[in-house]
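Troubleshooting: if your tokenizer reports a length mismatch, compare your output against this known-good record of 483 residues.
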Amino acid sequence: MIELDWKPDKSSPIPLYIQIKDYIREKIETGQWTVGTKIPPQRTLAQAWGVNRSTIVTAVEELISEGLLEGKSRSGTKVINNTWSLMMSASPPDWNSYVQAGIHPPNLPTIQEINKAEFAPNIIRLGTGELSPDLFPREMMKQIMNRVSDRIDSLGYEEPKGLLFLREQLSTYLKTIGIEASPSSILIVSGALQALQLISIGLLHRGSTIFLEKPSYLYSLHVFQSAGMRLFGLPLDGNGVQAKMIAQQKKRQNASLLYTIPSFHNPTGILMSKERRRELMDVCEQEQLPIIEDDVYRELWIDSPPPLPLKTIDKNGLVLYLGSISKTLSPGLRIGWMVGPKPVIERLADIKMQTDYGSSSLSQWVAAEWLSSGLYHQHLEKVRTELKVRRDVMINSLQKHFFDIATWSVPKGVFYLWLRLLPPISSRKLFEKALEHGILLNPGNVYDHHATQYLRLSYSYASLDELENGIFRLSEVIRQLTL
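Known-good structure output:
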């Protein structure tokens, strides 16, 4: 994707078209815009760079005449040479053909746009599933860093399963939520997402079917599909995934495992009841269907603690349990963990060593110190208090501005509110129009292509003023689109 954050210097004596021509030439010469790269439309360039379209036309036509670009009415303008290739008899490699041949599919276009827009200035992020920088515990982190600097002697590679001190602390922490796990049955990973990648290439055959809730966070990614897996969605109700569907579909779909987020499901926020968890375990034990329990949100409860994890009632080693500090503390540390049978943990630890030779040693020490110091629990208490305030601000704003155009349930924890729009509106038009008004959304159809009337709203990232302002502006955009 071509970045357009550069602008010509209008105070310079050098003509604007020359500046633009030199900029494009430099991008081509340095290999940043490779042969085959499509140049954005002239109107887009003119708007991004704040110049007349005729200025863009002049610069592009000169580059075409020099043999660097080629312009066709239907396919647009693209790079066909670089300055080195013009002096050589052999053609340069077509990197775009390599890009298109890669086995890992690209992100959904909307997800790519979201990832880029999240860093745009003056944007109200109503979809971001991350704690606000205002909730980052700066003073506590300073204390942790000081303790870590006194504790570590080196930052070399750690054991294949991860830093022993961290795994010991996690073993102690997991007991507080009912999970008995020795350090040897814990694998440190670079976030829960890496655990899913390791499982997909280390435990499953190509062509395997993965059961998951529908909608699901995994539909917005290609972690399993890139390894040749197929996703099959199971319906949700107010208590979680409908376990009765598993027995009906397992043989028909030849399912290999079930992926579930029982505590504050992403994107719906549903909390699986204690009774449904028991029912789900009974069905999966009967069907001998392994479970990936993604429990990265469980500590972010607001009203009351969630039921104990599925792993606590797992007597047959059926559950692979995933946890992380990305949602509760810092995604940038990239630290998560997996709990499972030792043969599985050892297999995936071996693959992880082949992949990255272990997660960051510094991050592991920092995470271990957070857990051992007791500061982690203090931090969580503060976060829960702040999330309640933010949730209530969003609910009040929705009741004021969305009472006649949407329905929703009040989430019991975490970041997300699953909003159902009543008037029929194009998801794409709403996403684009909201972005024009400085509001970044996560449309429901990235989690389920049928969920075109839904939005995953988040109250965790935007400031309180931004939440109120953003909800009001979003309601105005929706009302305009329904006229």
